[in-house]
Amino acid sequence: MAAIGPDVDSSLDTFPKLLLAHAERRGDRIAMREKDLGIWQCWTWRDYRDAAAALAGGLAAAGFERGDKVAIIGDNRPELYVAIAAVQGLGGVPVPLYQDSVADEMRFIVDHAEVRFAVVEDQEQVDKMLAVIDDCPHLQLVVAEDMRGMRHYRDGRLRSYSGVVDDGRRFAAGNPGFFEAEIARGSPDDVAIICYTSGTTGRPKGVMLSHQSLLATSRNANAHDRLTATEEAIAYMPLAWIGDHIFSYGQALTAGFAINCPESSATVMHDLREIGPSYFFAPPRIWETILTSVMVRMEDAAAIKRWMFKRFMAVAQRVGERKLAGRPVGFLDGLLYGLGEVLVYGPLKDSLGFGRIRVAYTAGEAIGPEIFSFYRSLGVNIKQIYGMTEASALVCGQADDRVRADTVGQPMPEVELRIADGGEVQFRGPGVFMGYYKDAHATAEALTEDGWLRSGDVGLIDSDGQLKIVDRARDVGKLVSGSLFAPKYVENKLKFSPYIREAVAHGHNRRFVAAFINIDLEAVGSWAERRNLAYTSYTDLAGRPEVYDLIEGEIARANRELAQEPQLAASQIHRFLILHKELDPDDEELTRTRKVRRRFVAEKYADLIAALYGGAASVAVEAKVQFEDGRTGTIKAELPIRDVAVAQSVALAKAG
After folding, report:
1. Which of 408, 400, 406 has the alpha carbon at shortest distance from 427?
2. If phi over 0 gives left and psi between -120 and 50 gives alpha, with beta otherwise, what is residue 289?
3. Cβ distance 472 to 422 under 8 Å?
4. Can you tell me the distance from the alpha carbon of 214 to that of 88, in angstroms, rounded to the nearest whole number?
5. Looking at residue 90, what DSSP letter applies?
6. Which domains are present in the chain?
7. In terms of Cα–Cα distance, which of 458, 493, 456 is closest to 576?
8. In 161-300, which residue ranges form alpha helices assigned H by DSSP?
9. Element of type H or E holding 444
10. What are the Cα distances from residue 569, in Å, to 85, 480, 483, 485, 520?
11. Which of 181, 216, 470, 542 shows the smallest number of beta carbons within 10 Å?
12. Structure-model confidence comparison of residues 596 and 183, the more confident one
């Protein structure tokens, strides 16, 4: 059955109206699956609608009113997607929060958004809500989907999800047609969701997005990649992230395809293999992690398998991307690639769960060209997209026949793009937000006088009409020499290494660039084990001279790449240290979307920065860390500092 879209019925102008239409037209088709205790449980479109109607009735019985805000907190669960639909159906506004946020972070958003109800997954989230409820005067009721561990909880403001649903069924029996009537009152101009920004430079801001904006963006994205009701997607990214709301809710409801919720974050890769999605999103770090695991497995494989993998991957690198783009290849290359598909590529893709992928996306950070090329050479149609919360997630995307590792594509349908003076990327289109909740000043600052949205990113449009992102405008600086310094660009070059998980580059108003490095514990740990290097902890492994040698080589590789770019050749890294601990959102060093809080990190580790630029060979550090169970500890270490050779730039080579 074709997707339900504007060409079919323009009256379907809110998501709850789409849900009712799907339940009516394809009620027995699968809308969602959830893996529970090792078994995939199925929800049809009729189940989806009935569950939303029951929950909506229960909320109405509890005093819900149009315009009320509802916090949605937890892992990807059908009940939480149902909660979003139920709240929207009643004319309310879901406010998803990051499930790994601590109580203090949740307190600000719950209070600022004037949340009246919270629908949460389990005891962990209930504890956070009960910890902040007395400080949030609007919050009246917490509804928990999984009540395990809460037998002795006596707070009257806590209810079970099943209890509220039972109330809803009784409410519906006395108010027939209530849910449908409430949905009919909905308008495409209503606020559909408030997504809070990550708060890289300050307090998070509540981005208000309308049904109209999200529907237009979802439908245009479906058209861009020809997504239909036959797709299978896996829903595992945070509910609070606008990308998940588009991929797992907006696009699923507009196209009518099924989403699949893993059993837990720890089982995503295993569940991915069982589902074999046709539509898949992963940030660069996940693509890198998967590739690292493949290469580690190959190192441990039999000699004949290693030889076969190496030979056929050479063929794939030469032929695969041309075949994927539909360009012609020679007869012999085509024959060899076909043989490789049978012996290597196909089995490898099946083992990863990528055998059925038709469209795959990556975004959020730059992805290493070697990593990008690896997947595409296998026949995995991975492409890059670019967007932001204020644009309903999607601004640019790559067409199947115009995919390059160094761009994020062209504007999505109906999106206009321009580069302003100073290089800032600006755009306008149907997905642009309604404004920041209770912050008219910030809303005005985000828009130009002629109505274009400021992205805050510096970029350029190349001769092929594709957008290249350089860095965040606020982070771009200059070295003492006057040369351009784009820290994010430098950090991305470093993070193309499988051994580097995070990097923080310093250089603004400095003579040279220096960097903090976080190693990837799994990748470096595997590397160390193969070399019989014993270690006891992250701190111990990070300080080993052999690991410093490894990272120095990776930084030298990044320097050689930077040397090829005349504008950024001066940004090569001269000195580095490996941090004694991983940067952590709980320590406020990263946002919940794993973006570095630069100013905070610079202030917290000012003595380490001073040592990098003071010529010291090492620096002593003593830091407090907070463990997941709330305990605190102290880490003491002597961090070595290494110099790195820089490469001759292309410009200097030509001048010589």
Report:
1. 408
2. alpha
3. no
4. 13
5. T
6. 15-210 (3.40.50.12780), 476-655 (3.30.300.30)
7. 493
8. 161-174, 178-184, 211-224, 242-244, 251-255, 268-275, 284-299
9. helix 440-446
10. 51, 14, 9, 9, 26
11. 181
12. 183
Q: What is the pLDDT of residue 464?
A: 86
Q: Which strand (E) or helix (H) includes residue 453?
A: strand 453-461
29, burial (CB in 10 Å: exposed 0-12, middle 13-18, buried 19+)? middle
Whether 71 and 95 have beta carbons less than 8 Å apart is answered as yes
Question: Which tokens is 77 given?
Answer: 């669960």
CA dist., res. 559 & res. 418, Å (int): 31
253-286 residue pLDDT tens: 999 999 999 999 889 999 999 999 999 999 888 8
Q: Is 165 left (phi over 0), alpha (psi -120 to 50) or beta?
A: alpha
Q: Which helix (H) or strand (E) holds 384?
A: strand 382-386
Q: How confident is the model at residue 162 (pLDDT cuts 50, 70, 90)?
A: very high
The confidence score (pLDDT) of residue 4 equals 41
Arithmetic mean of pLDDT over the chain: 92
- The four Cα atoms 232, 234, 239, 242 give a dihedral, to 10 degrees, of -60
% the chain with pLDDT above 70: 96
d(CA 247, CA 355): 20
User: pLDDT-based confidence at 629, cuts 50/70/90?
Assistant: low
Lowest pLDDT segment from 25-29, 180-184, 283-287 = 283-287
Dihedral sign, CA of 133, 139, 143, 144? negative
Burial class (CB in 10 A: 0-12, 13-18, 19+), 459: buried
What does the buried/exposed string (b/e) look like for 569-596 if buried means 16 or more CB atoms within 10 Å of the residue's CB?
Answer: bbbbbbbbbbbbbbbebebebbbbbbbb
Q: How far is CA 326 from the centre of its chain?
A: 29
* CB-count exposure of residue 24 (10 Å: 0-12, 13-18, 19+): exposed
Q: What pLDDT, on the 0 to 100 scale, is given for residue 201?
A: 60
d(CA 264, CA 277): 17
pLDDT at 325 over 90: no
Q: What is the pLDDT of residues 219-261, one digit of tens each?
A: 999 999 999 999 999 999 999 999 999 999 999 999 999 999 9
pLDDT of residue 322: 84
Gap between the terminal Cα atoms of the chain: 65
Q: 420, 606, 358: which is closest to 506 by C-alpha?
A: 606
Cα–Cα distance for residue pair 583/573, rounded to 1 Å: 20
pLDDT digits (tens, 9 = 90+) for 184-200: 999 999 999 999 997 66
**In this structure, is the dihedral angle defined by the CA atoms of residues 353, 260, 223 and 435, taken in order, positive or negative?**
negative
Are 359 and 227 in contact, with CB atoms under 8 Å apart? yes
Average pLDDT over residues 39-53: 97
CA distances from 566 to 512, 572, 650 (A): 16, 11, 6
The closest alpha carbon to 84, from 225, 193, 246, 4, belongs to: 193
Find the DSSP H helices in 5-44.
15-25
Token look-up 């040698």 returns 549
Q: Enter the tokens of residue 280.
A: 């898949």
Which residues lie below 8 Å from residue 615, measured CB to CB, with a gap of 6+? none
pLDDT in the model for residue 328: 86
Interatomic CA distance for residues 25 and 29, integer angstroms: 9
Q: Report d(CA 636, CA 517) in Å as an integer.
A: 17
CB 423 within 8 A of CB 458: yes
Cα–Cα–Cα angle for 236, 269, 310, rounded to 5 degrees: 135
